[in-house]
Amino acid sequence: MIRMEKTNSIASGIKYFVLAIIISLCTLTGCMQANNPFESSGTRYAIKKTTETVVLDNDTVTVVSIYENNERGQPITITKTASVNGTEYETTGITRYEYTDNGDVSSMTVSTAPDFAVEASTFYEYDSNHRLIRTIETGTYDGNTATIVTEYQNNSRGKPISVTFKNFTLNGTEYEVTGGINYEYTEHGDVSSMIVTVAPDFTVEKSTLYEYDSNHHLIRTTETGTYDGNTATAVAEYQNNSRGQPISVILKNFSLNGTEYEVTGGIYYEYTEHGDVQSIILTTGSDFTIAKTTVYEYERI
Predict the structure, then answer these.
(1) How far apart are the first and last CA of the chain?
(2) Distance from C-alpha of 153 to C-alpha of 151, rounded to nearest angstrom
(3) Alpha helices by DSSP H, the chain
(4) Are 63 and 82 in contact (CB under 8 A)?
(5) Is the dihedral of CA 16, 18, 21, 26 positive or negative?
(6) Is the CB of residue 210 less than 8 Å from the CB of residue 221?
(7) Are 298 and 46 in contact (CB under 8 A)?
(8) 166-187 tens-digit pLDDT
(9) What is the Rg, in whole angstroms, of the alpha carbon atoms belonging to the chain?
(10) Element (H or E) spanning 15, and its range?
(11) Is there a contact between 96 and 88 (Cβ–Cβ < 8 Å)?
């Protein structure tokens, strides 16, 4: 009985872990970048509001984000409010952005309730071609202040080939924490692999392989990771619309230390007539229960 409960617990944990992997893959490949204005017949659109609904056990949590955008359609502030089971709460957080004259984001700060002190900030540096070369992130939590510096190297197309974590500081004390992410691309410029390495010997902690169809649309990812002596592999398959945008990302199989688990679920997308993401639905389990829904609303700019 104990063994069965443990197995069920492992499978349940795996299910959410793998779906988190799928979300990270989508973020990397751009399939969830709904706030990039889509140009059609001279009309552009920018996000003005998102509504995220998450089901946690018996509770339903809703987070509404209101966007204030500049003339380019880029967000200046994003204000979040939350409600639990229909009970509304005050504003929970504000994210602010600043930009260079060329439109590159120069800083992002996150403030949280109740005093809306800056909890986290990120500063961005670019080369003369507006390619990201460095970020400096500072955050405070539970009385501690941490700073991490990350450096980027790009290829001739401006795509990252390496992201290196240079140093980490906690409450003024520097630590030798290094590692990074390395990217490889096909001859057409599509990312073919992503490898995450960690210090001190830069062991490969996670690798992701990408497969495409003849139109360079992403159709499959295979992610393998090691942690605490365990090795896990997750395979996800993508279906795309005529624009090449994903309409579904389905988890096909998952294995842990060579043992396969029947873990299913996926992400489904709907789009507006002008090509922007209208909704994202995250499902889990063999019955594809809806775990999270995000709805996007836009304004013309």
Answers:
(1) 60
(2) 7
(3) 2-29
(4) yes
(5) negative
(6) yes
(7) yes
(8) 888 889 998 876 788 999 999 9
(9) 21
(10) helix 2-29
(11) no
